[in-house]
Amino acid sequence: MQDIVRRLDTCRVCGRDDWLEVTSFGSVPLANGFLDPADLPAEEPAYPVDVIVCRGCRLMAVRHVIRPDVLFRHYVYVTSESDQMTGHMRRIVGWCTRRAALAPGELVVELGSNIGLQLGLFQEQGQRVVGVDPAENLAAIANARGVRTLPEFFGGDQGRRIHAEQGEAKLVLGRQCFAHIDDVHNVLDGATAVLAPDGLVAIEVPYLLDLLEENQFDTIYHEHLSYYSVTTLGHLFQRHGLRIVDVERAAVHGGSIVVFAAREGSDHPTRPSVGQLLSLERQRGLDTDAAYLEFAERAHQVITEIGDLVRDLAARGLTVAGYGAPSKGTTLLQFCGLGPAEVRFCSDTTSLKHGRLLPGTRIPCCSPEQARAQEPDYYLLLAWNYAEEIIGKERDFLSRGGRFIIPIPQPRVVTAEPVPAVA
Ligand code: TYD
Ligand code: ZN
């Protein structure tokens, strides 16, 4: 059997092997490795989270690469149907439709299409759609919802096969999956194999600049192999005859970019947003070692501060629970060394997680309904990327004297007064 973990030796984007060793967050089990309490392993395998940056193309990556089938064949991450995410998915449809001049009947291919919510919106406005997602459990749900989905890893073969069967795609979309992909060149081979001459590739990734500046250390875990800037994506696309023509910043997942790329020779004009973000990245020092090393220093400090705050509350007899059990939350709890003694449970809307224990920390995960019966004094807001929406809908908890701890960029406590602004 192939090893579960390999070390990244050469950069997956530019092929160089000149790495800046940024920091290590220690060894932890996989962030989505939820445990069944009836079938607990004596020991959970743990793998290092070591952060490195390529001095050639400035790709930030984790050194240890877990075999993708271990991570993605059965996946508990289901696209959120929160207001924020639904609104964002509708905006994506608008952005892509306008830029790719999408007409009814044209083909949209999405990689990492999860349960097909995004593609369903394209289907509603008349496009033909094909989703590709390696998670067999999620692809089955998508197919049952009427969104045609191949339960496979997308690559050159899949792109060629879809092209042969369905013709060329006006849009190849990959939302929040590029960070998960090791062999990005194979995926872009597939994208260019199916892409129409005037089509667009649209890739949404968490934005490296936001990660560094907002101390989002908890978004660094094994599933996220790569952390991209516009600069690095430009290098990557260039190798596949693609040119970045536009970029949108979006508030999802703590700050993301949607990068639109067209074939080199196509008529798509390059918009000013591209140059603006490239110079912003230079201005913020993303081409220097210091930006990454200073982030690492801040991250370790924030980890200490969160741990101290929660341990201090627990020591004073106050109860703390986690709000949400996202991958970044299981990661944060592990990095901060918090367990069930300090954080009694985590509530999460994802039914696949209910009744399970969080990886490593073994904190129980329950439904929001169960959580209401055992409300804590403080909720540690692990799903901080939904802060506004969650605090908005939990006003009653606040008015009963409950508090939220928002962990990043620095831990801060939110009380009922003043009432936070909600969009
Ligand atoms: P997300 O930030 O997308 O996860 P990840 O860090 O794994 O990429 O997921 C948010 C999690 O928070 C998800 O498990 C669902 C949960 N959640 C709640 O429990 N309640 C809520 O109101 C919202 C918006 C999310
Ligand atoms: Zn590189």
TrEMBL record:
Known EC number: 2.1.1.-
Task: Give all residue intervals belonging to the Methyltransferase putative zinc binding domain.
Answer: 11-72
Q: What CDD domains does the entry give?
A: AdoMet_MTases
Q: Which UniProt keywords apply?
A: Methyltransferase, Transferase
The domain of life for this entry's organism is Bacteria
Q: Does the keyword Cell membrane apply?
A: no
Q: Which residues form the C-methyltransferase domain?
A: 252-409
Q: Which residues form a coiled coil?
A: none
The answer to whether the entry has keyword Methyltransferase is yes
- GO molecular function annotation: methyltransferase activity
What's a single GO BP term from this record?
methylation
Give the stretches traversing the membrane. Answer: none
Q: What is this protein identified as?
A: Class I SAM-dependent methyltransferase
Q: Which organism is it from?
A: Nonomuraea spiralis
